[in-house]
Amino acid sequence: MTGKHIELFLVEGVPGGITTAEIAGWTGHVLAGPRSDLGDVLRRPEAKRNGAYFLLGDDEEAVGGVRCYIGRTENFINRFRDHSAKKEFWDRVVLITSKDDSFTEGHWGYLEWRLVELAKQAARVTLANGNDPQGRKLSEAQISDMEAFLEQLQIVLPVLGVNAIRVRSASAASPEAGDASPVFSLVNKKHNVSARAQQLGDEFTILEGSQVVAVWAGTGKAESTERAYAAYRARHQQLVADGSIAVEGGSGILTRDIPFSSPSTAAAVALGRSSNGRIEWKSADGQSYGDWENRGVE
Q1: Collapsing DSSP states into helix, strand and coil, what is residue 4?
Q2: Which of 84, 114, 174, 193 is the most exposed place for a label (fewest CB within 10 A)?
């Protein structure tokens, strides 16, 4: 895999403020900022271009804890005056434009349609869009241009903490891919657990179709242990509530890929108890995740 040169600029010199992102040689430009800085965002030259955008807001009842609206516009200023008055859920915004402003309304309509399509496929957020956008008719060459633009956008957005369209790529899923992790398994027949997972970038992801516990029932005696168990239980309950885990016949079936911060958190949610994921997740040849993680270190 080749490297990517991404240039981030903190406009106000502080993390969490207005930020721009570009990839060397890419015509795209991404501008992100909090709703509290919307006036400053809309005074920037990027806001005078055609483009697409995300509205994002934290929501405990949403998939992944995030509610998201995806749109496109020829005038960010007028559109966001309307959104500020009618949409309460969002607290941060991401504007996507082209530096040479060469894309037409049709290009941005196509991109909006693809962004919504990918967000549904990724299932990492709850979409607030009332209607599905209609894909625009573009030439074969124009579609190729927009798909190439989208590939770069899928790299930039997670760097800004926006994972709405972050999907597992075909190359990552392939065991022949040299830079892909193996698929790790976690099996506990007593509790009907049969889960599969991969390390994808900075996330340990349990894969769609895996079986996990239907109810998280672990308990702990020490106060610190009980706090940890309460967090695991809450995560499991939220995944059941938002439909990410479908309870069927005493088992929990994953309806989407679910990312975790560590293999141990993933194992704990899957097994219904605390777990050392670096030991319990095993590859097809019996190698533990911990041994795979330490490959080349010694």
Answers
A1: coil
A2: 174
Q: Among candidates 121, 160, 119, 115, which has minimal Cα distance to 135? A: 115
For residue 220, name the pLDDT band (cuts at 50, 70, 90).
low
3-state secondary structure of 62: coil
The Cα–Cα gap between 230 and 73 comes to 44
Other C-beta atoms within 10 Å of 144: how many?
A: 11
- Cα separation, 7 vs 31, in Å, equals 12
Mean pLDDT for the stretch of residues 280-291:
96
Q: Which of 123, 111, 262, 267 is nearest to 194 (CA)?
A: 267
What is the rounded distance in angstroms from the CA atom of residue 138 to the CA atom of residue 160? 29
CA pair distance 223, 229, nearest whole angstrom: 10
Q: Say if CB 143 and CB 149 are below 8 A apart.
A: no
Q: How are strands ordered across the β-sheet holding 28-34?
A: 6-10, 19-23, 28-34, 92-98, 51-58, 66-73, 126-127
DSSP string, 107-133: HHHHHHHHHHHHHHHH--SEE--SSPP
**237: phi then psi, degrees, rounded to nearest 5:** -60, -40
What burial class does residue 87 get, using C-beta atoms within 10 Å of its C-beta: 0-12 exposed, 13-18 middle, 19+ buried?
middle
Overall pTM surpassing 0.70 (yes/no): yes
**Which residue, 269, 211, 217, 267, is CA-closest to 238?**
269
- Could you tell me if 210 and 270 are in contact, meaning their C-beta atoms sit under 8 angstroms apart? yes
